[in-house]
Every structure is written in structure tokens, then in C-alpha cells.
Amino acid sequence: MQKDMAAKVAATFGGTEDFQVVVTNAIYPIGTVMRQGTTIPIDFDACQSKIEIPSFPTPSLFPGYKFSMKNSMEFGLDNAVIKELADANFRLNLNDTASYNVKSPKIKSLTDRQFDALLSNAACKAAIPLSRSVWLVRGYVTGKREFKLSNNNSGGVKGKIVKVASFDISLSGGESELTLSDDTETEFLQIVSQVSKVDKNVLGSLMGGGVGAGVVAPIPNVATKVTGLTPGSVPGKIYLQRDSADKSGLAERVASTLKDKGILVERNIEAIPSKGMPTEAQVRYFNDDDAESANRALEILRDLQPSAKAIKVKMPAPSGQLEIWMARIK
After folding, report:
1. N or C: which end of the chain has fewer CB within 10 A?
2. More reliable by pLDDT, 167 or 44
3. DSSP symbol at 281
């Protein structure tokens, strides 16, 4: 549900590489540099803005949501909350219908001018690894989340208000109604910008010429918002998956071939049980803009797996991210 809300915010505000929206896993300061697609921080301080970022109301951003109780764990009904409910004789039913809304939603985010100023700062540029895309925390969507559930399965509910984690839990004995609400405004969606640092000569080549275009040399580097400006024909990073029963070393050969062509490849190859692997090798991409990159990777893969195919997967993923799934062992 919160992923759907993140997608709505991204669609409302443009959803470009430098304005992606993800569910908040850690409330890091605006300007934090993280590994792309993760919550692992690289640097907290180098790209922080010295300017206070204001929040602005977005009253029409989220409608009310209704869903079944079995999907409510994403809202935060962990064991501590469930225990508190049990102690109050509130018996949960997975088929109950719940409602969810966000009160007073707001957005706070770096402007383009502030963002560009951060990237031009020497300390910030130094914090961004060369030829590797990273995420920079650009802002947050905030609000007070409220979850309500009514059922007829609770005998003698004890009316009270308790606090568990970040939630205030209100239990009314008369109508057997449960209300969970954030006690303060929460930064529940995180806005990130995908950035990378490239050699000036590589940048010149990709932009259509210039002195030393196409020659990678150890000269000063620049930071840029443009995604995928990394050496090689495929932007972003490729993740490899192989059958856990495959001992041929073919996946390692594919990874080596990709790296030889200057393509970023995740160092660890994930081993997946045979039943979860495709019958033919695949290059998987997630964003329409990455179809061309997927086809380039496919050309390389087909040298070793001639029957490989490129397919689009309808799942959210960072721009530029590809996956190569090796064929199942027969």
C-alpha cells in the first residue's frame, strides 16, 4: 500500500531519476548519500544543505484507502501492537475491512537550484563514488497516518488509549473500534535523487564531442544528475542470478564479460533454488527507458546463452537497473 502511495507521489511530481519516491526505511538527514536501491549510507554530512527546507501542504495527494486486515502489516501492526490488542480483548480477523488515511500530508524537498548547488560543492562531489550511481536524500513526504478497524468479534473490549512504538492506539469499548494513529507527523515516504560522477572526458563523449572525448583519464571529476553516464554501453548496474545447482561457472563468465566491456556488475551473484529459475536465460528490465540497455546486455549474454530473451518486469526499481537470470539447470 505504501509503495502505491510512493508511486502516486512520483507520478504527481514527475517521477524522474532525480525525483524518485520510496517507502522510508530510515529517516536520514536531507543530503545523505546512500548506495543506490538500499538504505546503506555512504555519507551523512558532505552533501547536507545549510538551508532549512520548508514543508508545503499537499491536501489532494492521498485519497482514503480501504483494504483487508491481512494487508495491514505494512502499516506497522507488529507483535507489540498485536499483543496490546489481545490484552484489550480485541480479536483481529484477517477478513475484516480496514481504512487508512493520511492527515495533513506535506512535502519538503530540495529545489533544483539547491540540489545543483549541493552537487557543485567539492565535499559533496568527493563523497560520490566515480562511475557508480548512488542515491541522495532529496526530501520527504510527511503526515499523520491513521488506521481504523471495526469488527464484531471482540467481546468486552476495554476502552483505553495506549502508546506502542510511534502509534497511539485508541480502543473504544462500545463499537469495538480500533484506531491507530501516528503521535506526530511522520516522514513515511522518502524522496531520493539518483546521481553519479563521471570523468569529464567520458561526459564529453556522451554529450557529443569535446576535447579528449572518449578517453578516460585521471583528471578532475564532475558530479552530474544525469543517470547512466558511466563507462560502457549499459547504464546503471546489473545484478546476476544463477541456479544454486549450477556449478559450471557460466554466470561468473557472463559477469566477467560484462565487466570487460565497462559495465557495472554487482559483485555477488545470487544463488536461487532451481524451481525459482527460468527455463531460458533472461535479461530483466523494469523501466521503459531501460529497454535499449536491456537489449545491449542481451547481445552480450547471447554469446554464451543463445536462447536468452529480454523481458520487462512490472515491479518498481531504480532507473538503469537490470537483472540477468541464468537458465535453470535441466
Report:
1. C
2. 44
3. -
